[in-house]
Amino acid sequence: MLACGGGFHIHAQCVDAQIVAVSDAKVSASAKPTVDKDGVYEVGGEVIPPKLLHCTEPAYSAQPQKFHISDDSTLSLVVYTDGKPEDIVPVSKIGLGLDENAVTAVKDWRFQPAILNDQPVSTRIQLIVSFHYCENPTDCEIQLAEREALAKLKAFQTGGSSSKSDSGPRRLVETDGVYEEQGSTGTIAGFTFPKMVHHGSFKLTKAARKAKLRGFCILSLVVDAKGTTEDVQVVKPVGMGMDENAVAMLQQSRFKPATLNGEPIALRTDLIVNIGP
């Protein structure tokens, strides 16, 4: 956290940086790894992506402070087998010097290299570095949580994949007829994620409105093969009656169900519901 004059705070937190594959194409977990003439691989399939081990905060320059800039800078880079990043180039820019600041900071970052067949390999990746402007440290924490929550909720509603801490290949595990996605690398052949088609009613409680509650709750639920929700449970509560409202909203919601090889299946997953004033 960088505390600045005028009562505002700037947040450019490197530990929240996101590593993404260079290509948007879906890669099967069993697909043959893609490698260029210099021996640099693309993340996906059997190539387990690199992990960030050490980072330094990028500087937030004076000029963007005037405009209260909160945005992401996307960098393309190669992480070599020694964990050092090179060939760092902005591919999606913020401007006002922030992209250059991101490049300067990332030069000093260190990674655990990508792994293929239990051996380190060099990989080209894209890295999203986020800059946040907020009025005080508490607002910074809320802003970061809400940005993450909104991104995950959007991915869920549009049929994107859920994020899991397991860094292995994505796969489906079945228990009593209900599937659950595990892993975070590549895609699952023949699998599509649920998509919300009807949103249940969701309102702030009087207590939440009075307190101007901001935050999010995490819910675990099963979307069955007919697109209805079952066994909705609160994993991380936010309080003031909003967890109960979120449960009721999901019980009223309807989905296009997950499918496996063209057939609808029941899927357990997590959903983050963003709470705002």
Question: What is the overall number of helices?
Answer: 5
Runs in which pLDDT lies below 50 for 5 or more consecutive residues are 1-13, 24-28, 157-165
The succession of helices and strands, N to C, reads: EEEEEHEEHEEEHEEEEHEEHEEE
CATH topology of the largest domain: TolA/TonB C-terminal domain
- How would the global form be characterised? flat
What structural class do you assign from the helix and strand content? Answer: alpha+beta
By CATH reckoning, the class of the largest domain would read: Alpha Beta
Number of strands: 19
Mean pLDDT score: 78
CATH superfamily of the largest domain: TonB
Report the biggest beta sheet as strand number plus sense, adding barrel if it closes: 8 strands, mixed
- The amount of beta strand, in percent, is 35-45%
* Amino-to-carboxy terminus distance: 25 Å
Characterize the structure shown.
Helices cover 19% and strands 38% of the residues. It is flat. The strands form four sheets. Strands 1, 2, 3, 4, 6, 7, 9 and 10 form an eight-stranded mixed sheet that branches. The chain is α+β, with helices and mostly antiparallel strands and 277 residues long. It has two domains: 2-135, TonB (TolA/TonB C-terminal domain), CATH 3.30.2420.10; 171-275, TolA/TonB C-terminal domain. The longest helix is centred in the middle third of the chain and has 21 residues, at 137-157. Mean pLDDT is 78; it is low at 1-13, 24-28 and 157-165. The chain contains five helices and 19 strands.
